[in-house]
């Protein structure tokens, strides 16, 4: 299936709350397990971008405006 | 390729001080997006409260004034009467609006002041350290109710929207939640309608937004959203209590 969306995360301002992880319908978002950002949190990121469907759920629930979503 | 979601220009580039997973960030964004969509950002005066959102003036990209505890509706009244052509909103928490500021919000609604209020209800005092608020649920633990809120000595949680909807001057009253992406979309629509009520000169409007406090609830951000859904929504039902069509 062709990739439908591209989601970018500003990892520097992520607080690692994990709300985006919990609402992703295709379960492709995860928190970094080892890396930490300058705030000291494990930031969220997309693991398998080709599965993104550009639904914007992650961006809607992110309290810190970390996420930008593009529709391909 | 089209960008379908990006940071709104209604907020400044400042990073918020809110705890991880605090839904204040979502509600700030919804308000800012609505101000941009209605094209009133440059004609808006916001009034922020005392509480966690006391620093909201750093985050909204419009003119802001910070008020004394609970007095945001009184400050907004003054701002609106001096600048009737401006859009004036207050952003208040439950400790601010439902406790120390009850008189101000009730009488601002009663006078039918043409202002809009965003009321963030997370059932606890956040900034001061998790004390019991009038909105704290029965059985919910707080630092000043260590065995949980008890009806006999502390009364039942106060439902502000239902109460304000009985006041003639209040023209728009709705309760929304930000626990799921679908509810976040609905919350934004409610905020937009509420703001339009003021723009059309119809009177006072308030949107109560059920929110979380992972830090003081002692839950993770994801558990907090679940707790909100399972405990707060049954006691604080979502929906519109009053809109101008109904009034006329």
Essential attributes:
heterodimer; A: about 70 residues; alpha+beta; Alpha-Beta Plaits; two-stranded antiparallel ribbon; 2 helices; 4 strands; globular; B: about 250 residues; alpha/beta; Rossmann fold; 7-stranded mixed beta sheet; 10 helices
List the helices and strands and how they pair.
The complex is a heterodimer of chains A (72) and B (248).
Chain A (H helix, E strand, L loop, with lengths): L4 E5 L9 H5 L5 E3 L12 E3 L10 H5 L5 E5 L1
Antiparallel strand pairs in A: 1-4, 2-3
Chain B lengths: L1 E4 L18 H14 L6 E5 L14 E4 L5 H11 L4 E7 H7 L1 H9 L5 E6 L29 H4 L5 H6 L4 E8 L3 H19 L4 E7 L3 H4 L3 H15 L3 E4 L1 H4 L1
Parallel strand pairs in B: 2-3, 2-4, 4-5, 5-7, 6-7
Antiparallel strand pairs in B: 6-8
Helix pairs in contact in B: 1-7, 3-4
| Percent of residues in beta strands of chain A | 15-25%
How many helices of chain A? 2
Order of helices and strands of chain A: EHEEHE
The total of helices of chain B stands at 10
Major sheet of chain A: size, sense and barrel closure?
2 strands, antiparallel
Shape of chain A: globular
Spatial gap, N to C terminus of chain A: 13 Å
Q: Provide the number of structural domains of chain A.
A: 1
What's the CATH class label of chain B?
Answer: Alpha Beta
Helix/strand-derived class of chain B? alpha/beta
CATH superfamily of chain B: Thiamin diphosphate (ThDP)-binding fold, Pyr/PP domains
Task: Domain count of chain B, please report it.
Answer: 1
Largest sheet of chain B: 7 strands, mixed
Give the DSSP E fraction of chain B (strand runs of 2 or more residues).
15-25%
**CATH top level label of chain A:** Alpha Beta
CA(first)-CA(last) distance of chain B: 46 Å
């Amino acid at each position: 299936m062709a990739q439908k969306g591209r989601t970018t995360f500003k990892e520097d301002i992520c607080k690692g709350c994990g709300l985006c992880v919990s609402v992703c319908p295709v379960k492709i978002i995860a928190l970094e397990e080892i890396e930490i950002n300058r705030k000291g949190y494990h930031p969220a990121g997309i693991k398998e971008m080709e599965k993104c469907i550009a639904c914007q759920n992650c961006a809607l629930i992110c309290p810190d405006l970390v996420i930008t979503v593009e529709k391909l | 390729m089209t960008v379908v979601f990006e940071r709104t220009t209604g907020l400044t580039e400042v990073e918020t001080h809110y705890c991880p997973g605090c839904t204040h960030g979502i509600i700030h964004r919804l308000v800012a997006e609505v101000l941009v969509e209605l094209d009133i950002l440059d004609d808006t005066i916001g009034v922020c409260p005392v509480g966690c959102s006391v620093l909201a003036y750093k985050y909204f990209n419009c003119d802001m004034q910070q008020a004394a505890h609970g007095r945001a509706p009184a400050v907004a009244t003054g701002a609106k009467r001096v600048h009737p052509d401006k859009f004036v909103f207050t952003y208040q928490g439950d400790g601010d609006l439902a406790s120390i500021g009850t008189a101000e919000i009730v009488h601002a609604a009663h006078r039918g002041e043409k202002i809009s209020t965003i009321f963030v209800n997370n059932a606890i005092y956040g900034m001061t350290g998790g004390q019991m608020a009038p909105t704290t649920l029965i059985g919910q633990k707080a630092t000043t109710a260590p065995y949980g809120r008890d009806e006999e000595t502390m009364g039942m949680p106060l439902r502000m929207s239902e109460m304000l909807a009985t006041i003639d001057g209040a023209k728009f009253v709705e309760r929304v939640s930000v626990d799921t992406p679908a509810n976040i979309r609905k919350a934004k629509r409610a905020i937009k309608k509420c703001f339009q009520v003021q723009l059309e000169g119809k009177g006072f409007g308030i949107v109560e937004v059920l929110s979380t406090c992972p830090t003081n609830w002692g839950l993770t951000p994801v558990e907090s959203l679940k707790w909100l859904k399972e405990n707060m929504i049954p006691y604080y039902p979502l929906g519109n209590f009053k809109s101008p069509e109904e009034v006329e």
